[in-house]
Design a protein that fits this description.
This protein is an alpha+beta fold.
């Protein structure tokens, strides 16, 4: 009998027996984190699921959480004048959804919707951010990882918006 594996190499049966800290530690976001840091993060975590086409959050709403995606696909969308809603990027298992919880003014910069059913680890960002103020080692580790996500998302968004502008400008595509 073949075991069904998630993208992080853990079988689905094993995942159901893992602690929250173990689930976080197995996610690429936590690569290289000490067990102590992972345990601190786990204090603010719970499992979350979203149905296909369910809105996870909307641009402009308060950002107070983020997600470590375990399974499924999420689309990041934004409204572009003259084009309507534009899909900027799709992310999936092994990715992180949400960075706005860490940076003032703490509002979402994109819409997020589940394209397929999604399983994730929900992390409550507001108290985690407050803990980072007290524990600078924790804050530094989260800031390093989250900043890399911000850079990647902004580069992807820039490419998509330039593509949309070129399409509008010459009428092709």
């Amino acid at each position: 009998m073949n075991a069904i594996h998630t993208t992080n190499g853990v079988t689905k049966a094993e995942a159901s027996h893992l602690s929250m800290a173990d689930l976080i530690a197995a996610h690429p976001f936590a690569k290289g984190l000490s067990h102590a840091i992972v345990e601190k993060i786990a204090d603010f975590a719970m499992e979350a699921e979203f149905s296909a086409e369910e809105t996870i959050f909307r641009e402009g709403d308060p950002a107070n959480r983020f997600y470590l995606i375990l399974e499924g696909t999420v689309a990041l969308d934004s409204f572009v004048e003259g084009r309507g809603v534009v899909e900027l990027q799709k992310i999936g298992a092994g990715d992180v959804l949400g960075w706005s919880w860490l940076f003032p003014p703490y509002y979402w910069h994109f819409d997020a919707r589940a394209v397929t059913p999604v399983k994730a680890i929900f992390l409550y960002g507001t108290p985690l951010r407050e803990r980072c103020e007290e524990d600078h080692d924790l804050g530094y580790e989260l800031l390093k990882r989250t900043s890399a996500i911000v850079v990647n998302r902004l580069q992807t968004t820039r490419r998509k918006l330039l593509e949309a502008q070129r399409t509008n400008g010459n009428g092709s595509k």
